[in-house]
Amino acid sequence: MSDLYTPAFYDRIRPGIQASADALVPILADWYAQNIPDRHTPLVIDVGCGEGWWAREWYERGYARSVTGVDGPWGGAAIERTRNSGFVEVDLERPEEAAFAPAYDVALCLEVAEHLADPGPLLDWLRTMAPVVFFSAAVPGQPGAGHVSCRWQDAWAGNFLRAGWSVSDQLRRRIWDDQRICWWYRQNLFVAYDHQALGLPSRVDVPLAAIHPDHWAVR
Q1: For 22-48, b where at least 16 C-beta lie within 10 A, e where not — what string?
Q2: What are the residue boundaries of the structural domains of the chain, listed by start?
Q3: Is 90 exceeded by the pLDDT of residue 37?
Q4: What is the model's pLDDT at position 83?
Q5: What is the CATH number that goes with domain 7-217?
Q6: Residue partners of 18: CB distance under 8 A and separation at least 6
């Protein structure tokens, strides 16, 4: 995958990621503040962080005590310029081999899993990293470089439900028409959480398998 994640690749996607993070991170942080009991300013890990703009936004806005980015050897440029943060190089095909302990409150994994030949180990690992996971991944037919394991939103959510977690689709409904955010996040985002660990009631709000109208505009 190192041949894909070149400086030119990041130059192309950076403006959309920065704009989306600027608009969406406050919404994610608000969901956390409104829904998680005994909440405190969280420790955040961004899995498949790329340059790290999502994690950086969490910290710079004051929504996270510290942030950690995780990706291959090409990642972390923005995180390395952010105070109270760190970058860990991890092979996302085999994340269970990573040599650091889970100690986070929130995990982000945004448009990453579809790039892996077998996303299963990554999804299993995510659930050990934090009790709250903001997740999105590509659906079948979604354009993009290196998409090898696209699945519908309900299938991605099923990985968490089968592990006994709760899933909520309320975030996608909130941002569906927000043009500040790239359409793929608006199309695919949901939140999964370990309701038992958090002392919350179970919730099964499976995201409907759906294509965003703005998706069709680029086909």
Answers
A1: ebbbebbbebbeebbeeeeebbbbbbb
A2: 7-217
A3: no
A4: 65
A5: 3.40.50.150
A6: 53
